[in-house]
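User: Hey, my collaborator sent me this sequence without any context and asked if I could get a structure. I don't really work with proteins. Can you help?
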Amino acid sequence: MTLNMETPVLPALYLPPISFFQAIKNNGEEFLIEQYENFPKQTFRNRASIYAANGKLDLIIPLKHEKKGHKLMKDIKISYDFKWQRLHWLSIQSAYRSSAYFEYYEDEFAPFYEKNYTFLLDYNVEIIEHMLKLMKAKVDLKLTDKYWGKEDLKLDFRDSIHPKKEPLYESPKYYQVFEDKEGFIKGLSMVDLLFNQGPRSWELL
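Assistant: No problem. I've predicted the 3D structure and written it out in structure-token form, which is a compact way to encode the shape of the chain:
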């Protein structure tokens, strides 16, 4: 795709946090997903945060370490040396089985924990597209055709949605399953909002 400097660029995140989708809703209908960046460690690209019974729980996708040095996001492969998909899905079920809309969406997410994907990029992009579809968001996502520097872009979200940074936008207020026990937790995966608020989720952003 030929770059339009006005087109926002997003990272390919796993079960992205709410702020990722707020960035989409607030910045148009066309976005680029970065695939040529050097893969940054300890980010939401291979982890997601959910609200479990004991508070925030990070779900981390294990990756194959084939060689030292930088690797592009598009070349990062998922490891299946242990059954992380089963662990992630059991954790999600345990965290949200009592939420208002988990049964409504359960069959929509289960296939992502049954099928093996070779590349992390493919896995993440398919999840993102499916979540947008569930929320009936009319958004056109395309992959970058090369790596573009920050100076080339007007809206660059690649480094701003990060586990160690405050969320980009103020979190919508909504009921969380374990809120009475642990309080409201911000910065969680969009599934937390989706399972608790269902069809209203996109509107609440």
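In plain terms: The CA atoms of residues 33 and 72 lie 13 Å apart. You can pass these tokens on to your collaborator as they are.
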